[in-house]
Amino acid sequence: MKRFFTAFIAIAAVFIITGCGKGESSEKSKGKDSGNENSAVETTVDSKEQSTTQSDPLNPENKTTTAKNQNTAPAATTSAVSTNTPDEKSTDAPAQEVTTVQQDPLYSDSFAYNDGGAVIFKDDSVKEKEEILLAAAQALFESACHTQWNFTVGCPYEIDSDDFIETDFDWRFYRIQDSSIRSVADVENDYYKVFSRRYPNTLSEIFIDGDGVVYALNAARGADIFYTGSEITGVQSKTDDEIFFTVENHYSGTDLDINTPYTQTDTFSIVIESDGSWHAGQFRLPY
How far from chain centre, in Å, is Cα 253? Predict the structure, then answer.
């Protein structure tokens, strides 16, 4: 009887040990599978993260759509635009309005840019047909956009980011490294290669004179992502040395309604300088 009882206890012990081993193995297996599952989810989420950047609005080769809080760099007018949608996953949103602009230069050889970015004519511009005047104004408007952006949003010169001065408002102005720029007046001379001195500028708010050097705010910002292009549409009035044009600035939407295009009408003028060249006069950066 004792032998039977002893054998029974031994067999029971074997079953208990075997059961524990299987349970522990099962738990380890489950934990391993669970870890793989979490890893797979992580990989899937990471693969969906994408960065978007805003292209220069005057770079027709690389016009892209971005989230509103992205910063970019601006501005040429383009004849084709991409689509802004409230949901990046949607593929059924309507396309933006296509903005068509006059090409520069026109098929004739009536005008061209000079080295500074102003517009010059082969003959007297006063004798040109209105279609030539519109095309030349379009060319100068785009040059003015480039210049205004470069001088007031960024800085057209190389700067030393380690050499700066601070204002009472903790704004940092960085030293311009170009040895030819020794005063704000030198900056203005470059600016007025495209703009007319008849109209004031805001460069003194962005550039500061130093001891034989100039410091620039270099206040980069993002351009209006809804801007799609501008078109000179007509002549408003003329004087002996200035022509006022109507310019239509096109936008694909607003913050509140990103899918409804609209157009904003403005005035742009060109000043005919004594040498016959065209410089930008009345002007507003549209983005």
Answer: 16
240/243 Cα distance (integer angstroms): 8
- How long a stretch of residues is the chain? 287
> Which amino acid appears at position 209 of this protein?
D
Tens of pLDDT along 154-202? 899 999 999 999 999 899 999 999 999 999 999 999 999 999 999 999 9
DSSP 205-257: GTEEE-SSSEEE--------TTEEEEEEEEEEEE-SSEEEEEEEEEES--SS-
Q: What is the pLDDT of residue 129?
A: 93
Side by side, the strands of the sheet bearing 207-209 are 159-166, 172-176, 214-216, 207-209
Q: What's the pLDDT band for 107 if we cut at 50, 70, 90?
A: low
CA distance readout (Å), 37 to 25, 48, 118: 18, 17, 64
Distance, in Å, from the CA atom of 257 to the CA atom of 31, rounded to the nearest integer, reads 49
Mean pLDDT value across residues 214-227? 92
Token pair listed for 242: 């200035």
CB-CB neighbours of 12 under 10 Å: 10
**CB distance 160 to 177 below 8 Å:** yes
- What's the Cα-to-Cα distance from 193 to each of 55, 59, 214, rounded to whole Å? 26, 22, 19
* CB neighbour list of residue 166: distance below 8 Å, 6 or more residues apart: 172, 173
Does the structure show a pLDDT above 90 at 68? no
Mean pLDDT (whole number) for 254-272: 96
What's at 150, amino acid-wise?
N
From residue 45, alpha-carbon distances to 25, 82, 156, 242 in Å are 31, 27, 41, 59
Mean pLDDT value across residues 109-135:
94
* Overall pTM surpassing 0.70 (yes/no): no
Q: Could you give the CA distance from residue 179 to residue 245 in angstroms, rounded to a whole number?
A: 38
